[in-house]
Specification:
- InterPro entries: SBP_5, SBP_5_dom.
- Keywords: Signal.
- One of its GO terms (molecular function) is peptide transmembrane transporter activity.
- The chain is an alpha+beta fold and 301 residues long.
- The chain has 2 domains: 69 residues, D-Maltodextrin-Binding Protein, domain 2 (3-Layer(aba) Sandwich), CATH 3.40.190; 205 residues, Dipeptide-binding Protein, domain 3 (Roll), CATH 3.10.105.10.
- It is built from 9 helices and 9 strands.
- The strands form 2 sheets. Strands 1, 2, 3, 4, 5, 6 and 7 form a 7-stranded mixed sheet that branches.
- Helix 3 runs antiparallel to helix 5 and helix 8 packs antiparallel against helix 9.
């Protein structure tokens, strides 16, 4: 309901907004086309964005976001406490192919925990070039091979279609270098309690949407279980450095250290995708922080 005491005069424009939760991309598309929805504001599948662009009744918005899609690795448990295994996984995964094939080109490969739309970004997507032979060699160094294949469980959070699709594609690429991957779909409440809070997992995949959140790696208790005194020192210096240029250099150094340690497998920066009836105006085209801000949204007559 519209709040009459809003601090800006004459806002918001709409009297009422109803939010519906439809995780199934096919259900989203059908509801929009049937007129049951005015906007798909979150979770728009790439193929549905392509389909709706050719329909004059609708408008597709493609904008920037701070979402990093991350294959999270539990650095405190086998096999990922061994940096050779983590680096092998980096070389085994073809980020460009994932973006082009799974996301239909809608995304930007990344190689550390920062999005290209944020300040002080370093492009480290080429730090570990796609090289299956190098991946196999690193796995052999770590003690794995045809007679002793590396077996991992990959936990996919159930509500997110992008996580399932990208997770399945990542698993297929890992299997090409001899890794045996068991996929498990985990309900969201279980993922939060077991994976996120309990760190009871080997690898998972999720989008990290908060801007400027590199400080999570300074917390050894965070679900990646990354424990680096060097990173904590850099982050502490960054927080107390008032000079913006010097702080920026520290931010870049932190990104490089995370890539060097191959803490996680950073897949891509996801764009913000939304689709709406052409009458819907005032929708945010970019997401500097995830928010469905409808303050200035209105319907053109």
């Amino acid at each position: 309901e519209r709040f009459e005491g809003y601090y800006e005069p004459n806002l918001p424009y709409l009297d009422r907004v109803t939010f519906r939760f439809l995780p199934d991309p096919n259900a989203q598309l059908a509801a929009l086309r049937a007129g049951d929805l005015d906007v798909i504001g979150y979770g728009l599948a790439p193929e549905n964005a392509v389909a709706l662009r050719s329909d004059s009744r609708f408008r597709v918005v493609t904008g920037g976001s701070t979402v990093e899609v991350v294959v999270g690795l539990n650095n405190s448990r086998p096999p990922f406490q061994d940096v050779r295994v983590r680096r092998a996984f980096q070389h085994a995964v073809n980020r460009q192919e994932l973006v082009a094939g799974v996301m239909l080109g809608m995304g930007t490969p990344i190689g550390s925990h920062r999005s290209p739309v944020e300040s002080c970004y370093v492009d480290l997507s080429g730090a570990y070039p796609y090289d299956p032979d190098r991946a196999r060699a690193l796995l052999r160094e770590a003690g794995y091979g045809p007679g002793n294949p590396l077996r991992v469980t990959f936990s996919l959070p159930a509500p997110y279609e992008y996580a399932r699709r990208l997770g399945e594609a990542v698993a297929a690429q890992l299997e090409q270098v001899g890794v045996v991957v068991r996929l498990e779909v985990v309900e969201w409440a279980t993922w939060l309690s077991r994976v996120f809070r309990g760190a009871d997992y080997q690898m998972t995949i999720i989008g990290h949407s908060e801007p400027h959140d590199i400080g999570i790696y300074a917390n050894p208790g965070y679900y990646f279980r990354y424990d680096s005194p060097r990173f904590r020192e850099l982050y502490a210096r960054y927080l107390r450095t008032p000079d913006p240029d010097k702080a920026c250099e520290l931010m870049k150094e932190m990104q490089r250290l995370l890539a060097q340690d191959a803490v996680n497998l950073w897949v891509m920066n996801a764009p913000y995708l939304a689709a709406m009836r052409k009458e819907v105006m005032g929708w945010w085209p970019n997401q500097p922080t995830p928010s469905l801000n409808v303050t200035r949204v209105y319907l053109a007559r």
